[in-house]
Amino acid sequence: MGALSSRKIKLFGNMPQMIPPFQPEKLPYAYDALEPFIDAKTMELHYSKHYFAYTENLNKAISGTAYEGKDIAYIIEHLKADEHAVRNNGGGYLNHSFFWQCLSPSKSVPSNVLKQQINAAFGSVDNFKAAFSEAVLKVFGSGWAWLAKDGNNKLFITTTPNQDSLLMSFADKKGAPLLGLDVWEHAYYLKYNNLRADYIKAFWNVVNWDFVNKNYA
Ligand code: MN3
Q1: What is the pLDDT of residues 94-118, one digit of tens each?
Q2: Contact by Cβ (8 Å): 155, 124
Q3: Cα separation, 79 vs 49, whole angstroms
Q4: 96: CA distance to ligand 1 center in Å?
């Protein structure tokens, strides 16, 4: 299996090229578009406060460093584990830019191609959802859950701590994300409090499978 590169695996195939100074990506729907599953207040704070802060702090963190002028894929792939400000804010910027597109008020379904891969890896779409949900429940503290593909296009579920990305060189399991879920309390606590399982259940109602399908293709 060759080294994964976001340039080769089209991770950003559906996203505009993100180069500094980084700007927040446009939210593809209104704050209240995902109600009642994700509430408007949470979306507004999440997007306009948390995401904007990651974006601004990433620009600050790379200012005057070797990362200045590099695109986000380069930064994510090259940053070192102890470069905390770039790691946290670069990951935060990338993960959220990706996450907004993983959600949609429009109903969609896994493509036949993706469904075949899900069946091969997990047995069925329902089994996949159960395994993904279990992974989300097991995230200790803040982090993310991912459906991803490896260098052989095989699907797997994994989680990352804090704002880490599967594309970071020190990730436990590297791969190309197809679908991500923010498991930070700021993503659900206003509406769901400590009931993370209810947040996950709601999430399945707003998954943008069209985006996931394109990420696999
Ligand atoms: Mn978040």
Answers
A1: 999 999 999 999 999 999 999 999 9
A2: no
A3: 25
A4: 6
